Amino acid sequence: MKKRILGILFFSAFIVCVFAQKREIIQPGEIWPDVDGNHIQAHGGGIIKIKKTYFWYGEQRSQGLDSKYRYVSCYSSEDLINWKFRGNVLKMLPPDSMASNWILERPKVYYNQKTNKYVMYFHLDDAKYRTAQVGIAVCNKPDGDFKYVRRFRPLGCQSRDIGQFIDDDGSAYLVFEDRPTGFHIAKLSDDYMDIVKDMTIVKAHMEGGAIVHYEGLYYSIGSELTGWRANPNKYATAPSLEGPWTEFKDIAPAATNTYGSQSTMLIKVVGSKKTTVIFMGDQWRPKTQWDSRYLWMPLEIGNGKLILPQPNPWKINLKTGEATGL
Ligand code: GAL
Hints:
binds beta-D-galactopyranose
């Protein structure tokens, strides 16, 4: 009898622990612990969904890493709230002639069904941001180890901040910021190992480029060029990726500087009742990068309008697609 009671007590304690760890809400701007309790390190990130699992890749900026390397982290989740650290899927020394203070930012991973490979693009640069290239690394599985392949300027153009867009028909695009000409949305080759065609070059200087296809319109978001400092992010719409694109308008009251954040991606969740588009942004802390935060909020979107509401805790039901504030 005593044993049974002890057993029940242990079991209940176990259940309490398991459920206590499960998070129900997204709290924009707060520390976001992964399932092991460590603040998620996936800055300037990108997300892909493989079957039921979301994979979030980003800049790994933890303290105490070996500074000889640059790291890309990977997390996985089935609910977009509870994330498991899957490891640093890229750990890279400076490629060929790059100096040791080179920069790797904004990694994005695409899964290519034809080759069954995961292809990572990232912004590769020198400390003064003059190299302006993308780097590519590949892997046979989503969680590493990715192997570096090459670096280049897409379509021969300067490329700094990059963004990822996968259309409803599965076609894959890279968004990149080219200072002389503007904001490119360019198609990847069949094997995703190259950039083959500009769909459009929007004559605006936008970083943190992100795109979503929603109710027949393309919405693109970008931020102005103010480095780590937040600015009023803007959006434009077009009936097709080729344009014509409207003028850019603020996504939030300009004085809030996008609530202190910068766009990195838009995630579309299609549920049985609703389609929700999530703004995924970074709140950078340049002097303590490991403590940089994430601002994720469901957008008010439709009929050519897009608004980032004031950040507040919220949750999402992936089955129905409904996002609710608290
Ligand atoms: C931001 C950019 C970041 C990083 C930073 C450096 O504008 O979005 O990814 O490059 O500048 O100052």
